Amino acid sequence: MSITRRSARRSVRILGVASASAALALGVAGQALACNISEFSAEATCDGSQGVIVVTDVDRSGTPATITVFSKTDAGVETQVGQPQDVKGSAEGTKVTFQEDWKPNATYRVHVKAGNRVDEDIKPDLVTPSTACKKEESQTPTPPASPTPKPSKSTPAATPTPSDSESSSAPAGTSSNAPSPAADDSNLAETGANSNTGLIAGVAGALVVVGGGAVYFGMRRRGAKSAG
């Protein structure tokens, strides 16, 4: 049984369609296995009290990639976090960790470079949680000191009363106002009042007697002259 030309052409056509279908399927499968930015993810977590940024690669093709993390300020200024790290993805997911003591609500840009296939950032940018890894210990406020009560202006302050011992005993080295007998005796001895008072009285009496005698004799002599 011979094959006609029509049958041969039909067979060639069927083989062409099958080959095209196979090529298309292989192309789709190749694209599915190719590295893609959607296979990378980043999150900010805590390792104990230390903050970290973890990037996960689920690329099944295992294409080597380099991850670089940058911190971003509100003004748009960027600072690289640590050093870039290499990762090779897997179906289970391969993780790389960046040590970063992040602050709450901070923004980070994560860049992925995988050969000639991927050279872009993970979108959207990573925003850290609103709670830090380690809470700051609250300081116990010191209670204010109670104010010292001030004395009332209407009530005068009490004057301290000297004790009986202080009032009864005079300070050392202070003499009393009343003269002591010893002091009077010493003063009289110095002025000679006790030793000369009798002598002066005797002399005065003798002078009185002598004066009286002189007056008496003078009157008698006058009387004799008048009689003669």
Give me the secondary-structure topology.
Blueprint: H1 5-33, E1 40-47, E2 50-57, E3 64-72, E4 78-80, E5 85-88, E6 94-99, E7 107-114, E8 118-121, E9 126-127, H2 164-168, H3 181-191, H4 193-227
Descriptive account of the structure:
With 228 residues, the protein is α+β, with helices and mostly antiparallel strands. The protein has a domain of 91 residues: Immunoglobulin-like (Sandwich), CATH 2.60.40. Helices cover 35% and strands 23% of the residues. It has 4 helices and 9 strands, in the order αβββββββββααα. Strands 3, 4, 5, 7, 8 and 9 form a 6-stranded antiparallel β-sheet that branches. A 3-stranded antiparallel β-sheet has the order 1-2-6, with no helix packed on it. The protein is rod-shaped, with a radius of gyration of 67 Å. It starts with a helix and ends with a helix.
Offer a few descriptive terms.
alpha+beta, Immunoglobulin-like, 3-stranded antiparallel sheet
